[in-house]
Amino acid sequence: MRRDSRLSRMLHVLIHMDRHYKRATSDTIAQMLGTNAVVVRRTMAGLRKQGYVHSEQGHGGGWELARALTDISLFDVYQAIGAPPLFAIGPSVEQPECLVEQAVDARLNDALQEAETLLLERFRSVTVADIAQDFDACFAEHTHHA
Amino acid sequence: MRRDSRLSRMLHVLIHMDRHYKRATSDTIAQMLGTNAVVVRRTMAGLRKQGYVHSEQGHGGGWELARALTDISLFDVYQAIGAPPLFAIGPSVEQPECLVEQAVDARLNDALQEAETLLLERFRSVTVADIAQDFDACFAEHTHHA
DNA sequence: AATACACGTAACCCGTCTTGTTACAGAAAG
DNA sequence: CTTTCTGTAACAAGACGGGTTACGTGTATT
Q1: For position A1, what pLDDT does the model report?
Q2: ipTM exceeds 0.85
Q3: What domains are there in chain A, each with its CATH number?
Q4: Which of A133, B12, B16, B70 is most buried per CB count within 10 Å?
């Protein structure tokens, strides 16, 4: 396990759910993602809390979209999974006493902050529907050549 | 231990070495960084291989700068420690078969790539000497008010 | 020569975090 | 009342940075 793949996975599943004519069970979704049902429930819990998806218990239950993909941005999904840390590098301690270390961390945090702002800005400006469109275009291309 | 702090630590120590009139031992450096001598040697090994610092064994030995801080950028140091992964998030698999997943990962990688480019650009444009100057300014300010 | 000092490196453990897995309780449909 | 679901808790696995011990090697001092 290297990098947190929850964002990627949730985007992936949201698009599949949009294409799925009926409720999808955690098991069905797990097979799509190549993982397991418990992981799906665990990760989707955040999306449910934010009202992006809805789950029904019992026989015939499962998951379904509660909002249009046009109303869900990558940022929304990122927030819904708990806004995990974006960067794998950073300063060593929170409040260093050493002034040299403070100067180092200030510069480092500046650069990281800039990158984070840009990244989250991109996340905000892209909806899951945009990605679904990318897929549609790619799929059309794919079948056209086949 | 959350985020990789090697870059921060190496920048920190390079500035201290520039201020240090003589060779610094791994133990001395370890105390500055709040860590231990073996970790220092391990991490500094990368800087030595790139020729940014030089180490001398035996009695009276230790570490010294092999280049001016003006000639070492944050990017150089980042590379020297092995260019560890910058991001803590990312796609789930390398080459997904699912076209939906491919579309998701493409968008995600686009955004990550943009952020990485920006970050490394900042790293390239800042020298360790720049940070040392920040410290000097801050230190002057500090003693002035005291 | 002997000793003390300091780097070089391998080996191992620990803490943290994501992910996978098992187990079990609750709810809804047949 | 059994089957099919979700909802959680609990725990193991794997990865990775960092801390620690141990031991080898080179160098100056005595």
Answers
A1: 66
A2: yes
A3: 6-145 (1.10.10.10)
A4: B12
